Amino acid sequence: MSADPFDDPALDESLDLYQLLADAVDSLLSMTGAQIVASLAIVGIASDVLAESLLVRVFEDTLTLVRENADTSQPEVQQLITDLERTIEAAGLTVDLSAPVLLVGLLALAILVEAIRIVAVRAFANDELDGVPRALAARRLPIAAAYGFVAVILIYLAIGIVSVLTFFLLFVPALFVYIGLLFVRQEIAVADKGPIQAISGSWGLVKGNRWEILGLAVVLFLVTLGTWVLASLLVGPAGTVGGALLGAVNLTFGTALVTEAYVRLSARSDDRPDRQPSI
To answer: What is the pTM of this model?
Structure first.
């Protein structure tokens, strides 16, 4: 057992974070990167519209409930009605659909985002930067997207449960789990694994490289924080479009960065018994 509880013995060669960042930026600025950003931005705008519409629907139903059942002569009730009306009026782009339809739409778009990210992983892993080849994008895509969506849910559940159970440890165990599962999507997209196999494969790939992957996670956090701050400065329809575009850039860059690290670590671990042929 290693003397360091956070890491295990690994190969002497280390990841070059600077080179990973440079390659990820090149991927982002490529034709493929532009296609992925555009696709994610369009889906992001649609998701924001549906989410805003669902929120407005909830506020409208709440407003109706208050007016029908509460004593509207009370000052606090009047203030609540005023606040709800202002919130509804301040809403951005919305569509007039029922709550169940909006929920189904949001679910479908979430799966579509996963499919786009699967395609991005495959393209970046194969250094296809002049545009995403159709055959590469379409290969087992529905299955891979479904696997990816299920894996993401499992990952969030695992991190959430560990966070709740170990909050007194300053979430270090949750960070340990997050780092260990960072390459799950790449295992699904590139190695054609199912959710459980991908989780196991990612954990095995990260083993012995956790400090390097921690640096990668810090970069991802800082980039995400920066784009979130910029997006929070935008309001109204411009906020919907600009926020979706910034989110798409963030997701594309993050996918490229993690995939670059995955390719390098996989090349150092080709003798793993669970390793499947890459595309």
So the answer is: 0.83
